[in-house]
Structures are given as C-alpha cells and as structure tokens.
Amino acid sequence: MSFDAHVCENGHVTYPGHTLCPECGAKQTETLDLSGRTGEVVTWTKSTATPPGVRAPNTIAIVQFDLGGEDLTDDYVRAVGQVTTEAVETGDAVEPVYAEELRDPEAGIKVPESQEWDGYRFESV
Amino acid sequence: MTVAVIGASMTKFGERDAWIRELIAQAGEAALDDAGVEPADVDHLYVSNMASGEFEGQGGIMNALAHDLGLMPAYSERVDQTSSSGGAGIYEAWQSIASGASDMTLLVGGEKMTHRSTAESTDIIASITHPAEYKHGLTLPSFAGMTARHYLERFDAPRDSLAKVAVKNHKNGVDNPHAQFRKEIDEETALESPIVADPLRLYDFCPITDGSSGLVFTTEEKAKEITDDYAVVSGIAGATDTHVVHERDDPTVMGGVVDSSDMAYEMAGIGPDDIDVAELHDMFTILEFLQMEGCGFAEHGEAWKQVEQGRTEKDGELPINTSGGLKSKGHPLGASGVAQGYEIYKQLVGEAGPRQVEADTGLACNVGGFGNCVITTIMEAR
Ligand SMILES: [Zn+2]
Predict the structure, then answer these.
(1) Looking at the complex, does the CB of residue A35 fall below 8 Å from at least one CB of chain B?
(2) If I label A56, which of B44, B48, B250, B360 is the partner at 20 to 30 A Cα–Cα?
C-alpha cells in the first residue's frame, strides 16, 4: 500500500483525493506517495473520549509535507492521522508508518465493507 | 417579500423520557400557541433533525408530525444539515415565505440522543467525517482539540480565556428555565475538569441532549394583522467549507462562517457593529472565538481579548449566548439552530425574561460538522 496524495492537471495536491480538484475543478490525474517522506506536526491532540473500536487514548496529528522544489503548484500538502506514541509536540518531524487496522471495523456505526481500515500512522524521527 | 417570525417555542433541554415524535410535537404545538396560529393555517412544515434514524430507528418524522398536529395537507419536509440542521430549517422556512410558496410555515427542530452511550453518540456524529478521517478514530471533539492547540500557540492566547467562555455561558444559562445545566461554574472547575481532547477538557464541551424548539414564519403583511410584536429575518445565508478539515489553508478560520455572515450582512444592509446580541454555536469553547472572528466581531486571533475584557458578557457591549449557549443549554443537534432563533426572537420582542438585554438586531450562527456547513441568520425587531 502507498500513502497517496492526489495531483490535478494544474499541479494542486490534496490528501485524500477528490473527484475534481477542490482548488480549480480540474481532474486529479496523478498520485504522489507520501510514505518515505518526512513531515512536520502542525498541531495535535490526545483524545480520551474515543468511539467504539478506537484505541484510548488516541493521539492524532495534522502533518504537513513540504513540496517546495518539486514541479507542483502547491508548496505543501497536509494529512491527518494517528501518532504511534502519545508523546508528540508541534513542530516535530515525523514519518508515516503503515498499520493494517487503525480501528476495529466491526465496532463502529459504519458498514465495515464500506471503507478500508488500514493506513499510515505518524512516528517521530 | 419580507419574512416575519411571529412565534417561538423551546422545550426543556436535557435528559427527556419523550422520544423524537413526542419531542417535536410538543415544540410544534407550543410554537403555534405562542403565535396564535391554527394548525389549518399552516402551509409548509419543516422538521430539522440530523439523525432520528441512527439514534432511534425512526424515519419520516415530518409526516408523523404533520399528522400529529393535524397540519394536513401542508407540505412537509425533513431538513438534515448535521449540527446546522436548525439553521438550515430557518433558511428553508424563510425561502418558503419569501418565494410566495407558503403564507404560514412552521419549523420544528428536535433530536433525541441521551439514550445512547457517549461513545455511540460520538460515533454517530463522527460518521459525517471523511473515511480518511473516520478510520483514524477522529471525532468532532478531536478536531476541536487540534484547532484549540493551534489557536492558543499561534496567537499566544492564555488557556484561561477558553475557560472564561464556559464560565460566561454557564452563568447565562442559570437564567434560562429550559437549559440543561443551570449551574454556575468557576474557572478553576473548568481548568481542572478531565481531559477530553487535550488541551480541551470536559467543560470546553457541550453535553449530549434531548430537546426541541419551534418557530412560526409568515409574511410581514400577515404578521401585522396577527400581532404588534414580531421580528423580521433581514439577512440569511448558508455556505460550506472543505469536508476534510485539515485541507483548510488556515485551521483557525472557518470559511463557512466568514462567507455566510458576509452574505447575511450584505442582504440585511448592515455590518457586525450593528449587531446587539448574538447566539454563536459554542459546541466547543474554541468555536466561540472562531465565530466571533468569522462574523467580524473581532480581528483574527483577538476574540479571546474581548472575552477577557468582558465585552461578551450579558451586561457587556455585545452579549453572546445570553441563552447559555450550547454549553449550558445543551445541544440536541437538529434543535440547536432553531433554539438559537428562539433566543434571538425572544430578545428582539422583549420576552427574554431575566435574560433580557437591549437589542433591536440579533445574529445567530449555526455551525454543522466542524465548520463544514454554516447558516447565519440576522433578525431585526419591528
Ligand atoms: Zn487543481
């Protein structure tokens, strides 16, 4: 599995992808794998009141990946996800780590088959 | 056509034995009573509700209510816009009168939630998030935690300033007989309560609530025949922002608040300085800052200073959440936006009792999701 951001014909980058680019309305035609890159924590929280099937506490961060110097219109793309440890600070450098199951698919309100449950957590480097 | 509000109701918010059908029937009947309108006079009925199916397994509640109040053959429709369903209902009701499709419209908002556990309710609400967010266990409170941290760090706002929002709204709620909590709290209690989504604690969040609220709309022409005390909807607009929260350029700006309030001001021909009283969607304390700034009551990053200075207290220059806000009044999702309208209407017609402030113009900002969709309504006294 890759950690795909999506790129439109005009070089705007989003994570996750959309049918049409939210910035300009063009089709998203390419992907950009964020795994193997290092990002920076923009903000984070440690949630103690979690829904069924979610680990508690659940530390989550918004992470920004720098795209400067690449042949793209956007300078950065952000993603959100669980942090592997409870200790994290704003400004920390983190990298994506694959996890097969981020929460128990059977425990929540969504039909388990309606979406995928694996993805990338963030780990401090 | 100018649209008038001629009656309003709000049932007791809190833990109620009544289920959704009974809750909305109570608010509907009470709103018609308050307006002095007969069921046969109602042309359109709107029911604001986010999730009666998910919470209770009850669908089609607009037809149930039309029959239970004897409104046939009135057109009926359920309005779901998540947490801003109530505001969206005001927008639908306004459109129905403004377009000439209806001469008399009843709007009822309601939600029954407390029979579910906190974890289940949180998950029902979190189901509105994008799969990329949901699978990580993100909840609306966790968005609030991340936004609050970013706001406090970036604008050097003291943590106490968030607690002051909770203290103020609890204080206001004491004078609201329909509020879920009618108890003052001190800053220490708020700051020492259990962590829910760090740096936010229990008292930064509104409770889970059952309740309902109603409003009656008609043309200004007809309103004059019925009553001397009415209000008009002088500005109303809705807007959306990104579904995926982290895709916003600035985590401390809710674009839907900025856009909907800009449009509402333009329609009313007034600005933020003309507002005398406001009901903001304080689902989380940090949202009161974001909406004060988005609605133009404060510069970006400076709302906390006004709260610290007491400007938003009931006896301040711009009272915010005289009703107690969602924080102490409670937040029955589909009812909340209608109840904001109830408070503004009662303030404008001078029927707010011990909560009464001096006000000719009021604003209500109703936020859905984490700023995903927003309705701003401006009412003026006549
Ligand atoms: Zn684009």
Answers:
(1) no
(2) B250
